[in-house]
Design brief:
By secondary structure, this protein is of the alpha/beta class. The chain has helices spanning 15-21, 40-47, 51-59, 68-79, 113-117, 120-131, 146-155, 174-181, 197-208, 211-219, 232-251, 271-282, 298-305, 330-337, 342-355, 362-371, 379-393, 399-415, 433-440, 452-463, 469-472, 490-498, and strands at 3-5, 8-13, 30-32, 92-96, 99-103, 136-142, 161-168, 188-193, 222-226, 261-266, 286-293, 307-309, 357-359, 372-376, 421-425, 484-485. The chain has 22 helices and 16 strands. The longest helix has 20 residues, at 232-251. Bound molecules: pyridoxal-5'-phosphate.
Length: 504
């Protein structure tokens, strides 16, 4: 198996090259040249083994230039060394009959990004050994809140690697910010930007694909890579948990082998739900993919109309990790659904760049409607959902998960579809204590200025939900990274952080 670029099908690289490079030179995203299949017998076999072994089995279908030993080392180090607080790694929690939450936040930073970012540094290490020619890998990250911390934690003190994270200064939760600015490690740096996630992501992509900057880095023995979901090494480990969840549904007698399930995903950059799409393409019996958005509902509108239009106001919501108007990974879906037409993708992406919008062909729009359903909800409905779910089922969920639950219930009311369902739970509620407290009616004005740790304590007293240890232990850590820059100065910030001076 080789990997092509979505914007130039003649580009052919190995898995290691795709992972080490992160993004193709002309700005396209790497995709496998064929999707491997997963048979009913294989699903049965995977049902009997633990998460890390399921991961190794699935990864080996895609990483053809890795040895089995390398893959097993990666999955073992990521999932079997106590980094996840759940033995199952990605456990299912039955909310009510037929509806299960897939909890993806038991990793060290308490959001689903750990599922991939605990393994990506190991995949990167082997990839770089084969392809990077001894260069130091510079991981550039744009984050809407959770990727940044998860990438910092995954890559801290990794050999031959440095990591720089840009986050929207006013667009992340107080806990997300605390997690990033207190990051430990000798190869890490963090910088806030005066802008939103899209500004950060656009800036990072521009730096990646700027030939002059690449030369400058090369002459200093460095090369860029990405830990965002534009990197195939981020997406691939995310396919695993959908297959794993399906196996767990079988082994807990919630479904019979072969029975279809629906999957609901709170969506921002379209990475998580795209992994579910790939799992479905492999043969996992997923009936419908349900895409849930917050008020920044560009994806909901796109799925329902075939028109992607980012020319709209950007809203800061209580689910900040989904505050995104340019969903990068949609490009991979469009490539797959357009019959791998790089010409079509170049046209669409050029329209997006020049006009801020694009319209897909009727066939592609129809195919999307067949596969996907989409819905959205605002902050008030998100809060109501948190409260209802807690009162009815005694389960405390975060704001992102609440968006997904709300959209699922809207879908079910309209469709009467009672297919067994997996709703993806993407973060622990204590990452968003103020919003969750507000939702439960426990954040009275006199406490709104209280510090983050008081809010966590208050939420715990109110609900009894356990505060994860990594969030408790941030208290008392020093703030190491207080820099803020304008989006236009990101390039300069990179050179300063790398101490290699500015290109003239
Ligand atoms: C990143 C994130 C999302 C969005 O995931 P995408 O892969 O960007 O669609 C949703 N919820 C949480 C908590 C996240 O951190």
């Amino acid at each position: 198996m080789m990997y092509n670029s979505t914007r130039d099908s003649s580009v052919r690289v190995t898995a290691s090259q795709a992972i080490a490079q992160g993004i193709s030179k002309e700005g396209g995203l790497f995709v496998p040249d064929a999707i491997p299949s997963l048979t009913a017998d294989e699903i049965k076999m995977l049902t009997g083994i633990r998460y890390s072994s399921r991961a190794a089995y699935i990864l080996s279908k895609y990483l053809k230039d890795f040895t089995c030993e390398e893959i097993e080392e990666c999955t073992r180090l990521a999932y079997d060394t106590g980094r996840f607080r759940s033995f199952a790694v990605a456990p299912l929690h039955e909310l009510y009959s037929g509806v299960n939450l897939l909890e993806l936040w038991h990793g060290p930073t308490c959001a689903f990004k750990d599922m991939a970012l605990q393994i990506l540094p190991h995949l990167m290490r082997f990839s770089a050994r084969r392809t990077a020619d001894g260069k130091t890998i510079i991981i550039l990250v744009a984050t809407s809140g959770d990727t940044g911390k998860a990438a910092l934690e995954g890559f801290r003190d990794a050999e031959n690697t440095r990591i720089l994270v840009f986050y929207p200064e006013e667009g992340v939760s107080p806990m997300q910010k605390l997690q990033m600015i207190t990051q430990e490690g000798n190869n890490v740096a963090v910088c806030g930007i005066r802008g939103n996630f899209d500004d950060a992501q656009t800036g990072v992509k521009a730096i990646f694909t700027h030939p002059g900057i690449a030369k400058r880095l090369e002459s200093n023995g460095m090369m860029f890579s990405s830990a965002n979901s534009i990197n195939w090494g981020r997406l691939l480990p995310q396919i695993v948990y959908y297959i794993s969840a399906y196996c767990d549904m079988i082994s807990s007698d919630k479904i019979n082998a072969g029975e279809p399930v629906n999957v609901v995903v709170p969506t921002g950059n379209f990475g998580n739900i795209l992994a579910a799409f790939y799992a479905r393409e492999m043969g996992l019996p997923i009936a419908r993919l349900i895409c849930a958005s917050n008020r920044n509902r560009v994806l909901t509108d796109f799925i329902n109309t075939g028109v992607y239009d980012k020319n709209r106001s950007f809203h800061t919501t209580t689910s900040p990790s989904m505050d995104i108007l340019i969903s990068s990974n949609l490009e991979r879906l469009l490539y797959a659904l357009s019959g791998r037409s790089d010409t079509e993708i170049r046209l669409l992406m050029n329209d997006l760049k020049t006009k801020g919008s694009y319209t897909v062909s009727d066939e592609t729009a129809a195919r999307i409607k067949e596969l996907f359903r989409a819905g959205w909800c605002g902050d008030q409905q998100t809060a109501d959902t948190i409260k209802n779910v807690f009162q009815k089922y005694g389960y405390l969920c975060d704001t992102h998960t609440a968006v997904a639950i709300n959209v699922y219930e809207q879908y079910r009311d309209i469709s009467r579809d009672d297919t067994p369902t997996i709703i993806v739970s993407t973060a622990n509620p204590y990452k968003f204590s103020a919003s969750v407290l507000d939702a439960l009616g426990g954040n009275h004005a006199d406490h709104s200025n209280g510090d983050e740790f008081e809010k966590m304590d208050k939420l715990q007293r109110l609900t009894g939900a356990v505060i994860p240890e990594p969030l408790v232990s941030i208290k008392g850590k020093d703030s190491r990274f207080m820099d803020i820059c304008n989006p236009a100065d990101m390039e300069q910030a990179v050179f300063e952080m790398l101490h290699i001076g500015r290109d003239r």
